Amino acid sequence: MSVIGSNILAGASGQGGDYTIDESLRFNASQSSYLSWTPASAGNRKTWTWSAWVKRGNVSGSDNIVFQAGSGTPWFICGFGANVPNSFFVSFLAGSAGVNFYTAALFRDPSAWYHIVLAVDTTQATSTNRVKIYVNGTQATTTQNNAVSLNYDTQVNNTQAHYIGRNQASNSYFDGY
Question: pTM for the complete prediction?
Answer without folding.
Answer: 0.84
